[in-house]
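Students often ask what a 'structure token' actually looks like in practice. Rather than answer in the abstract, let us consider Peptide deformylase, a protein of 221 residues. Its sequence is given first.
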Amino acid sequence: MTTAGARERDVALRDLALRLLDAADERGIAPIVQVGHPALRAVAAPFDGQLADEELARLLAVMHRTMRAAPGVGLAAPQIGLPLAIAVVEDPGTVDAEAARVREREAVPFRVLVNPSYTQVGDERVGFYEGCLSVIGYQAVVPRARQVRLTGFDERGTVLDEHVHGWAARIVQHETDHLGGTLYVDRALLRSLAASDEQGARWLLEPRPTTAAQVLGFPLD
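Now compare that with the structural description of the same chain:
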């Protein structure tokens, strides 16, 4: 991309971000776009100062409120229609001690990921049910790396370079994938796909989807 082209792109992204923020409801919550929206299949542009500090802070606040209201444990900017490489994550954890142990799910405080990327650490992969705020009504088992190296920046420009494991690593992978135009269903075991109804909720009750694998006929290992 030429310098002029990059400048035009950045101006367009800023204008889009401000329009989306102005369109948030009275609670400061933005609509979450659903599968089929082009922003979910675009490769997000790297964040490179397209927004002023106060504009970025406003965007992050709207994303945080939108994620919590959904409710979800992560939200990428493309999910509100903005193809910019920013995501927010926050996970309160689970009160189910066995699920927390099996899924290695610990609480994750609110944090911002700017231009994140990840690489798998080790060979171990684990499969658990996932859903997505942009694919309402369904869930599926996604095999993911148990541990990843996360790199990128936070909202203050501080460099991130850390190993993340367990459920937190799953969240990082899910949200970072959004920034590359990849949805969880692209990586899912499709025979595990289940509606988020009473039957589907039963599969989520198991710490690991062993019964679902047996009944629906998909491999877990």
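One point worth highlighting: The longest helix spans residues 3-22. Ask yourself how you might have guessed this from the sequence alone, and why that guess would often be unreliable.
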